[in-house]
């Protein structure tokens, strides 16, 4: 039986979009640091390191001048002062990293533009996007470094530094003490009043716990002379319990020792309520909001806003790089204002717009995630558009 020859099927050519994706993938796999990349990195990293060190030294001098009276009251020796400066370093790094990156980008790129090196690179076939690769790599590294520090290390170390300045907080044995600690668990209607809290040993003295219903009527009051957290539950000694019915005492009993497994408030959670939200890490803020049961209410709007800001602030470095590189790289000797003034003006506009959005988020005017991420999206989009215009 004769069969007709079937026509050979030609392989389908990928679309232009797919070809671009494949070409980008191949280029990414074969990409290596070239001599030009190393040269651009060296031109950026040198001023970036020196600018960061200069700003850090200025910050240390400011801290020493502003806190000298507190050091004298606490009788700090030179070792304690160095410890305080070390604990304050992560917060300083997260504060000056964006401005140090901005200054170093402007300086290095304008220096290359004035010597016509960028013009020579573009004449040799290097587009602006290819020149910006190593610069974006530094900005990404700075963002990741800030993300790791700003999320937990910076607020936790700053809280330890502030604790060093609280008079009478440290005992003769070296334990950290807190006095007159109060905590409210909204979802459980539970109020804690603690006279003395040994943070180091996680023990308390003279405790009063009041439980209320949704209408604010007392259900139970617990008085304890001592208590400790064993890692899972609270155990109290010399306890007196008063139960209420229709907001009136209905019975009283006393016990020598009793544990309360329904009290899920950990020492960290109780102490977090008395701390500034700026000194709380992202995980502590999230735990505090989850345990409170008020995830979307107005009371915890500042906590949710700061929590989102812990994650969004580091990526301002990428937004700064986006709108700084096209202006500084295209600056000339005849028009230096295009390379210096515009990035600085946009940076200060971004700074004030960010503070404005955070204030709206803390005041429960806009959602917390919009308040924290909107400045990066707006100014990052502006920078991307300017980068596309000058590519």
Fold topology:
Blueprint: H1 16-29, H2 35-66, H3 68-74, H4 78-114, H5 117-123, H6 128-164, E1 177-185, E2 190-198, E3 203-212, E4 218-229, E5 234-245, E6 248-260, H7 267-272, H8 282-292, H9 301-312, H10 316-329, H11 337-362, H12 368-389
Antiparallel strand pairs: 1-2, 2-3, 3-4, 4-5, 5-6
What does this structure look like?
The chain starts with 15 loop residues before the first helix and ends with a helix. The radius of gyration is 29 Å and the shape is elongated. Helices cover 58% and strands 17% of the residues. The longest helix is centred in the first third of the chain and has 37 residues. It is α+β, with helices and mostly antiparallel strands and 391 residues long. The mean pLDDT is 78. A 6-stranded antiparallel beta sheet has the order 1-2-3-4-5-6. It contains 12 helices and 6 strands. It folds into 2 domains: 219 residues, no CATH class; 99 residues, lipopolysaccharide transport protein A fold (Sandwich), CATH 2.60.450.
């Amino acid at each position: 039986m004769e069969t007709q020859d079937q026509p050979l099927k030609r392989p389908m050519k990928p679309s232009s979009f797919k070809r671009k994706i494949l070409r980008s993938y191949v280029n990414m796999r074969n990409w290596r640091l070239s001599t030009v990349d190393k040269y651009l990195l060296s031109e950026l990293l040198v001023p970036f390191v020196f600018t960061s060190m200069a700003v850090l030294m200025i910050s240390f001098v400011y801290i020493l001048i502003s806190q000298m009276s507190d050091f004298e009251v606490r009788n700090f020796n030179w070792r304690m002062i160095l410890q305080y400066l070390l604990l304050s370093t992560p917060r300083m790094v997260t504060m000056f990293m964006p401005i140090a990156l901005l200054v170093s980008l402007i300086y290095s790129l304008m220096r290359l533009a004035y010597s016509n090196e960028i013009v020579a690179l573009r004449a040799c076939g290097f587009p602006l996007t290819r020149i910006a690769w190593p610069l974006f790599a530094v900005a990404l590294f700075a963002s990741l470094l800030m993300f790791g520090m700003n999320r937990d290390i910076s607020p936790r170390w700053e809280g330890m530094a502030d604790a060093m300045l609280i008079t009478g907080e440290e005992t003769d044995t070296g334990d950290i003490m807190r006095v007159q600690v109060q905590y409210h668990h909204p979802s459980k209607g539970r109020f804690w009043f603690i006279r003395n809290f040994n943070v180091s040993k996680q023990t308390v003295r003279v405790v009063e716990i009041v439980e209320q219903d949704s209408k604010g009527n007392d259900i139970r009051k617990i008085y304890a002379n001592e208590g400790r957290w064993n890692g899972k539950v609270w155990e109290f000694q010399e306890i007196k319990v008063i139960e209420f019915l229709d907001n009136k005492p209905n019975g009283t009993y006393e016990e020598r020792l009793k544990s309360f497994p329904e009290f899920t408030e950990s020492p960290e959670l109780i102490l977090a309520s008395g701390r500034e939200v700026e000194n709380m890490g992202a995980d502590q803020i999230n735990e505090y909001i989850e345990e409170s049961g008020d995830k979307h209410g107005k009371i915890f709007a500042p906590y949710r806003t700061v929590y989102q800001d812990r994650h969004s602030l580091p990526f301002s470095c990428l937004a700064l790089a986006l709108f700084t590189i096209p202006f500084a790289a295209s600056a000339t000797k005849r028009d230096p204002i295009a390379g210096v003034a515009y990035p600085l003006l946009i940076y200060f506009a971004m700074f004030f717009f960010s503070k404005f959005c955070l204030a709206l988020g803390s005041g429960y005017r806009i959602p917390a995630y919009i308040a924290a991420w909107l400045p990066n999206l707006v100014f990052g989009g502006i920078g991307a558009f300017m980068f596309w215009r000058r590519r």
